Amino acid sequence: MTDSSDSKMPEDWLKDLSTDSRVEGYRADEMIACAGCMRSNPPNRLDCLYCGVDLVISDEQSRNLKPLLRKTEAWKNAENIILVNKAENLDEEGLREAAKMLRIESGELKKMLSEGIPLPLARSEQETEIEIVVRRLKELGLKIKLIGDSVFDLSTPSKRLRKIEFAEDALDLTLFSDGSVKSIDRSLIAQIVVGVLFEHRVESTEKHIRKKEGNEILETAETSDDELVVDIFTAEDPIGLRISAKGFD
Length: 249
Known about the structure:
This protein is of the alpha+beta class. The chain contains four helices and eleven strands. It has helices spanning 59-62, 92-102, 106-115, 127-139; strands at residues 32-33, 40-41, 79-85, 119-124, 143-148, 159-166, 170-175, 181-185, 189-207, 216-234, 237-244. It has a six-stranded mixed beta sheet with strand order 8-7-6-11-10-9, with no helix packed on it. Helix 2 packs across helix 3 (106-115).
């Protein structure tokens, strides 16, 4: 039999524990009243603890917040933080603070700042949070621009092209839909983006079974496809014109 006397804790092992049972809280004047349910919320929240409504936060109250931009679902409309120009006096501490708010590595942010060109930093649909982040980034000396998804009219697809003919100072573009020709001046071309569209499709055949939860899957088929595309944007048309690898003359 093992003697358990050696495993006993010393009598004074609790002497260093605090005897103060009070919980540190916030003063009444620090609490934020929700405009939706009128309940008080601690000053370190962006939305109501009880009903989820965004809180109206003053500049002074925002100092207590530590915003961390959460990832936005691809299908949601959001605001985009664009880096226009870096701050010359941004030190390592400021760099780490900015990177933490943007939820990226400080080394990655440092590399983006060294490029010297406008680059997207983050995207979020949380209006209150993103306003605080933009304000803090500007205080650190970064030149920031906020652009919403609504500007790009993402619900409208790009006009697909069938053919391009190069003239001396213009491009004659033949639309895929109706074969009409549109001529644009070369000087109006603002940006050309090359990318790949990936499509993954899952098809399944199911058998409905009565008096049983769910259906029985009989067969499943998965297909994947990718397509090279080139999008052309002009100063007069933010929707863009698209060259697809399929169906382009």
